[in-house]
């Protein structure tokens, strides 16, 4: 191993050791352990954030912030095919981020609830704040 690499590894180990407390905070840790979400909840939230991780799906959600819309209008607004819109809406619906209602032959989509709007608004606020 080169001296430079060995020196970097040693420096990193020293920095990590400096970050550790000398005193264990057992009471605080026990309190926090009891408040931590379950593994299943964490897995579900991680899957939800994966759905938010696609720009096209985010555009669809942003479009639906103001009003419900049909697939053809969403397609025109975003400049993507109706097939692509339908595919993304299926994913959003299965994640309970959007809902639909049928009116005759038309299907209208809207955000599932206020939580979706809040998550999207908080994300945009965070990005604009950076």
Short description:
The chain folds into two domains: 3-35, no CATH class; 39-129, Orthogonal Bundle (Arc Repressor Mutant, subunit A), CATH 1.10.10.10. Helix content is 68%, strand content 11%.
Structural commentary:
With 130 residues, the protein is mainly α. The chain folds into 2 domains: 33 residues, no CATH class; 91 residues, Winged helix-like DNA-binding domain superfamily/Winged helix DNA-binding domain (Arc Repressor Mutant, subunit A, Orthogonal Bundle), CATH 1.10.10. It is 68% helix and 11% strand. The chain is built from 7 helices and 3 strands. A 3-stranded antiparallel beta sheet has the order 1-3-2. It is elongated and about 70 Å long. The two termini are 40 Å apart. The mean pLDDT is 88.
Spell out the CATH superfamily of the largest domain.
Winged helix-like DNA-binding domain superfamily/Winged helix DNA-binding domain
Largest sheet: 3 strands, antiparallel
What is the CATH level 1 assignment of the largest domain? Mainly Alpha
Shape: elongated
Distance between the termini: 40 Å
CATH topology-level fold name of the largest domain:
Arc Repressor Mutant, subunit A
CATH architecture type of the largest domain? Orthogonal Bundle
Number of helices: 7
> In which range does the helix fraction lie?
55-70%
The share of residues in extended strands comes to: 5-15%
Counting structural domains, the number is: 2
The residue-averaged pLDDT reads 88
Which structural class best describes the helix and strand composition? mainly alpha
Number of strands: 3
Q: Give the H and E element order.
A: HHHHEHHEEH
Low-confidence stretches: none
Radius of gyration over all CA atoms, rounded: 23 Å
How would you write the strand order of the largest sheet? Answer: 1-3-2
